[in-house]
Amino acid sequence: MSDAIPGPGVPEQRGVRDHARGEVLHRHARLTKSGRPIFCTPSRAEIEGHMLPRQSRGTDGKVIYPTREAAEAAARELESLGSRLLRSYRCGRSRGGHYHLTTDTGFRAGQTPLHLRIPQQRPPLSA
Fold first, then answer.
1. pLDDT band, very low/low/confident/very high, at 73 (cuts 50, 70, 90)
2. What's the predicted TM-score (pTM) here?
3. Which stretches does the entry tag as region Disordered (predicted)?
4. Domain spans of the chain?
């Protein structure tokens, strides 16, 4: 087995691969003492089956934002970096209230093209 150093085309496989998105997380997410983002995980009671899961499996491993404002700020910055539209929501698992981001599938007035926001006139009723 060789101890070859990976070439310049091989990305780093640990941590956040996109530096710009990593900076957004470090600005807005709840961080550990070592400076890494904290992720939402099920409690020991949920894992052992003593308690019903408070959230679906799709929320496990999501970054924790301490406030809705922090989550919304992160969403706007991530969208400016090319992410899909995001919205924040309060996690049902947290006691004190923390927030996550999810893909926003609803229409936003600011994102909808102008011609779709203008009400269409109806033809006059003939008597």
1. very high
2. 0.62
3. 1-21
4. 19-105
